[in-house]
Amino acid sequence: MSMPSLTLLLRCSSLLAVLLSVSAARELVAAGPALTLLWPDGAPGAVGTDENDKPGVRIYLPPKEKATGAAVVICPGGGYGILATDHEGHQIARWFNSQGVAGFVLQYRHAPKYRHPTPLADAQRAIRLVRAESEKFGISPRRIGIMGFSAGGHLASTAATHFDAGNTAANDPIERVSCRPDFAILCYPVISMTESFGHTGSKRNLLGDNPEAGLVESLSNEKQVTKDTPPTFLFHTGDDSGVPVENSLAFYAALRRAGVPAELHVYQVGPHGVGLAFADPELYGWKDRLAAWIRTNGWLAESSRLAVTGTVTLEGKPLRWGMIALVPEQPTLPLAWAMISNGKYSIPANRGPGQGVHRVEVFHLGSVEPRPTLEDVVKFEHPTAVTLRGESQVVDLSLSNK
Asked: Where residue 129 sits, what CATH number does that domain have?
């Protein structure tokens, strides 16, 4: 063998060793924290003792100085046949940690060994575990959400529509607490088991080849939404041919009919299974919309919200048309705002600010007279911050152009 060939062989061998080392490192990272079993003494209905017979959570806790007390149980997708645990699990949990939110990546049982109701039992148990042991984890038992991707989104939507208050007579303290999530996050989810836009593979893996019609109906979650379904965030792409966007549209419409607060983002471009969507700057922004939604709904802070009403005058006259924003000094509190009409505004408690100090911003939106106008938006910042306390408060403002 000539020297150039030998050199090339050695370089290729070295490169292979590096690639293998990188691959091994990635596998180690993908494994994440150690698995915390949902049932340490064995899961009910287990048909074996392999790793896949042992449902559990891998726990990601944010740094104490950043922790908000909120938590999310994360259900990876995989058509109820595998678990896409890395890009729809560990990566998501690490992102939540950057927001001060604890992440619990769920390892739930699935086909071919397990069908309904086993995955749901695992998800419900995970919510109960996080709530029952919330003090140990440093989280609030009132700010625990569930999140799911694709078929994991079906599981999360099932947990959000099929829940109970717990069994107070149970010997197991975990079983005594509620499995209702406080909020739900559904990412390109499978929702329907009855409509043509559902995902046949997930349905087959979850329910078998010939499921009873009543069971199929009960797990078509767009038909199971009630007023008690928790507030929900959804994101999907119009390009998704694996799980069509009609799944999210149907669930959102059901939430609207039931009067449940909800937010839906549909992006024009993007295939199924994008996870955080690092390659697309626009689609990658879905996580920022989610972060804003979580904050807006008050799940990042242990603070009750209050109603605020008041008047706004400009140069002594009622401000005809504008907006007011109460910007909290504490960044985890929700920002609250309202329209101003003829000098008056009102923010109800369910959309109101949290308790604390707020900066006040007013935006004069110009004339509403039925004639052409050259007026533009003018921003006013009130020189004095306001401290909000109690159940309701009146904040009157007098502004000047000087």
From this structure: 3.40.50.1820
